């Protein structure tokens, strides 16, 4: 394909409701050694799947046979104008912004699958594979190649106008898509700023790397067992996830939104009542998480998180 075909494909992705779209190449990852060292140092914690399919993760060309290109897309899920939450009351636990609305896996995959189905009709000789956060692929690196932003020191993708409140997905294909001439890779604008590093309560962040074992998001969402008391005391009032490194980022400073925020991520709730969570049964948990990305956290994990937040707030439960 030449530009005359790639650009309309990007336009179709944007017309599907994605805030950003671009074309990425499928050459091997430039961060293979860093990922290998990160895994060797066990910084992935209990996320055992990160240590599987590493060859595939480092080489997106192997996602499907004869892969040539990737269409990468991004949804913006939160407004920069509301980057500072109102104060939380004792007895409540905060939810990370990405999990306050509908499940992004389903929301993004539905639109990507519809686009892929159209492309299969138009290009019956080609293959297409959709992924949203579940395939062994380095989505942020591919998004950077596709011109959707740069990887910040907190390891999240940052767009110069939209900030970092973005969700990523893509379609890998055997079509040979040409990178549009108008598309460019965004340079790193972090400069000497270390706000995300300095603000992290658990010291999980070093420049361009996160030790998941200390990250509040990992601890409250992925870590299945009890949390070390020293780290638990620094979780504050986060009952599910954490936005601290994004809240302090200058690129998320409150400004008018430059790119559209998909209304499907409109906040259903931004906090939980701790006593309510502590009293949940499994049926209660499922009901509370219906249509939400939060269902990844098991009942015992939510009970644990609620106890930690209550303790940090000086409450007896």
Explain what this protein looks like in three dimensions.
This protein has a domain at 3-85 and 98-173. The mean pLDDT is 93. The N and C termini lie far apart (62 Å). The protein has helices spanning 3-15, 32-40, 54-57, 104-122, 139-145, 195-199, 216-221, 229-232, 244-247, 274-278, 282-288, 299-312, and strands spanning 20-25, 69-76, 92-95, 128-131, 150-151, 157-158, 166-173, 205-206, 209-210, 238-240, 271-273. A hairpin with a 5-residue loop joins β5 (150-151) and β6. It has 317 residues and is α+β, with helices and mostly antiparallel strands. It is 31% helix and 14% strand. The longest helix has 19 residues, at 104-122.
Distance between the termini: 62 Å
Largest sheet: 4 strands, antiparallel
Give the helices and strands as they follow along the chain: HEHHEEHEHEEEHEEHHEHEHHH
Strand order of the largest sheet: 1-2-7-4
Kindly provide the radius of gyration, computed on alpha-carbon positions and rounded to a whole number of angstroms: 20 Å
* Helix/strand/pairing category: alpha+beta
Number of helices: 12
Q: Proportion of β residues?
A: 5-15%
The counted number of beta strands is: 11
> Can you give the mean pLDDT?
93
Give the overall form. globular
> Low-confidence spans: pLDDT under 50, at least 5 residues?
none
Helix content: 25-40%
